[in-house]
Amino acid sequence: IKFINVLVQSDDLHIGLVSWFLSILSLRGRLNLGNKILSHIYLNLFTALNSSPKGQNVSEPDTKTPLMSEQDALIAVMVAVSVSDSTIKTSELVTIERIVDHLPVFASFDSDRIKIVSRTVFELFEEEDGLDALFGLVRDALPERLYETAYAMACDVAAADGKLRETELRFLEELRYELNIDRLHGAAIERGARARHMTV
Questions:
Q1: Is the dihedral of CA 161, 196, 84, 183 positive or negative?
Q2: What is the pLDDT of residue 68?
Q3: Cβ neighbours for 73, distance < 8 A, ≥ 6 positions apart
Q4: How far apart are CA 62 and CA 184, in angstroms?
Q5: Does the pLDDT value for residue 3 go beyond 50?
Q6: Residue 84: CA atoms inside 13 Å, Cβ hemisphere, count?
């Protein structure tokens, strides 16, 4: 936390915080860090980066409460499936915007945070173990009752352009495993997404 406070007061806040976390990622083997610990570390940095004005110290977080909101986690899942094939398509961005604008789970969500969460996902995708850390963040923030909601949103984004690529299918399979979604329930969600995005 002291180290983070120093970075918060510098002009290189974003670069400093992200670089420090990436250093932790590279040392995870030698430090014997699991995904849950990595998630807490990144959540602390995420909060410092997005919430603390320059010159203000970062207080010790309450690790009992996830620092990424439920809505942040849902956005992260949708952005992640969109970038899983290395290309973000207009139809996928429109679908994310439509979901955020119309679903009740986002009623109190500040849409300006989409850019912040998206940047976090982009940075994690650049790292070898970034996807594991992302899944840890999502599981930490989401209650179990929203697991299927997250998977349904991911399926809608993946199906938005009418095509499901191998990388997207692989990401959905990993997400289904990480969120412990039953295969039959997952298949029903996937079929519903496919039906919603059929073209004439």
A1: negative
A2: 78
A3: 137, 138, 141, 142, 150
A4: 37
A5: no
A6: 27
Please count the other Cβ atoms lying within 10 Å of the Cβ belonging to residue 34.
10
Report how far residue 61's alpha carbon sits from residue 89's, in angstroms, rounded to the nearest whole number. 36
Strand (E) positions, 54-125? none
**HEC per residue, 3-38:** HHHHHHCCCCHHHHHHHHHHHHHHCHHHHCCCHHHH
HSE (side-chain half, CA atoms, 13 Å) at 169: 6
pLDDT tens string 131-165? 998 999 999 999 999 999 999 999 999 998 887 88
SS3 category, 184: helix
Query: What is the Cα–Cα distance from 71 to 173, expressed in whole angstroms?
Result: 22
Q: What is the mean pLDDT of residues 3-16?
A: 44
pTM of the model: 0.70
| Bigger pLDDT: 154 vs 87 | 154
